[in-house]
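lol forgot to send this yesterday, sorry. struct tokens for the thing we talked abt
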């Protein structure tokens, strides 16, 4: 059986991530990781008539760059697994339609990059695919319009709020030879601690991150120092602090080896992003750019990527419901 412990899957055939691609906006390029991305858009509408169309174009561009970097044609890709934050995953559906590749549409909120990597890895490991693309995106303006206030409203942002990353990241998971493999995945459970503040996503998602990361280490029976980096996707400053503190109480004190993409992509001191970054594109672009580069160079050999998502909607918020969280963990190692 290719499963250990409570909920961790062992990928015995070691599907490889043979290439990645990232597209971001100018604010992201101006942050701490500027220069690690493949393509930067300097216009929030990316030459389109709406922010939603711009997001679709970003995701399409990320896949186009990925295929070019990997020297692959559309017909060599068996599946695409992807999604975004918009209703019915419209950013992804419109963005990927022209590729004519079988499509798994996913909604894991900000956890979607890790979820899509899980699906891609399982299709390749199980022999159902030779090449599967994992991709996702988010856009600050389209997300604000859907989940918060129209930008024209000029609403005051709370200190706990996060800035949705304008970005897209894509990865090609393949059965070809390579050095960077997905070795284990730990799909997460829905965790709801009753938090209702939509401007405090870090606190809402942190319990799910704690649950999944803790479960992953217990299932694998590995030491806290096994990974060179433990990375959460979208918790920001507050969620990162909560997660770090609680994991340390469980014997998982990662110290400086634990980082959050929402704190890495922006400069929290000079850029007005309050608690940091979030959104599907946060983990996706940081992984596809900065972290994958570290793996390729051999500067790190083992990393655990745990993207987190708030499984809310405008309807659930208006009806006074709490915000359920989810987190999926992907172990990526040089082999």
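and heres what i got for the seq, position by position
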């Amino acid at each position: 059986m290719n499963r250990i412990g409570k909920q961790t899957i062992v990928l015995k055939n070691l599907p490889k991530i043979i290439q990645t691609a990232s597209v971001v906006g100018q604010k992201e390029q101006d942050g701490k990781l500027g220069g690690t991305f493949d393509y930067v858009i300097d216009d929030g509408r990316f030459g389109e008539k709406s922010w939603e169309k711009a997001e679709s174009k970003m995701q399409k561009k990320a896949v186009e760059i990925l295929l070019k970097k990997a020297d692959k044609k559309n017909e060599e890709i068996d599946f695409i697994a992807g999604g975004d934050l918009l209703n019915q995953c419209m950013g992804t559906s419109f963005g990927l339609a022209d590729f004519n590749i079988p499509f798994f549409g996913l909604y894991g909120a900000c956890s979607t990059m890790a979820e899509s990597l899980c699906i891609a890895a399982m299709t390749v490991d199980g022999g159902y695919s030779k090449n599967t693309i994992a991709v996702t995106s988010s856009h600050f303006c389209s997300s604000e319009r859907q989940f918060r206030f129209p930008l024209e409203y000029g609403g005051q942002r709370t200190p706990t709020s996060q800035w949705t990353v304008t970005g897209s990241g894509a990865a090609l998971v393949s059965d070809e030879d390579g050095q960077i493999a997905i070795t284990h995945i730990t799909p997460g459970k829905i965790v709801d601690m009753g938090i209702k503040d939509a401007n405090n996503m870090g606190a809402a998602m942190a319990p799910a991150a704690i649950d999944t990361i803790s479960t992953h280490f217990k299932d694998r029976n590995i030491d806290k120092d096994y990974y060179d980096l433990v990375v959460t996707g979208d918790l920001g400053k507050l969620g990162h602090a909560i997660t770090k503190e609680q994991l340390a109480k469980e014997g998982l004190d990662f110290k400086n080896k634990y980082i959050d993409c929402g704190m890495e992509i922006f400069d929290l001191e000079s850029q007005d992003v309050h608690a940091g970054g979030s959104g599907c594109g946060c983990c996706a672009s940081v992984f596809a750019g900065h972290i994958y580069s570290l793996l390729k160079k051999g500067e790190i050999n083992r990393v655990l990527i745990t993207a987190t998502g708030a499984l809310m909607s405008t309807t659930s918020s208006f009806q006074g419901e709490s915000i359920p969280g989810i987190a999926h963990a992907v172990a990526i190692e040089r082999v």
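The chain has two domains: 3-174, 180-334. anyway ping me if u want another try
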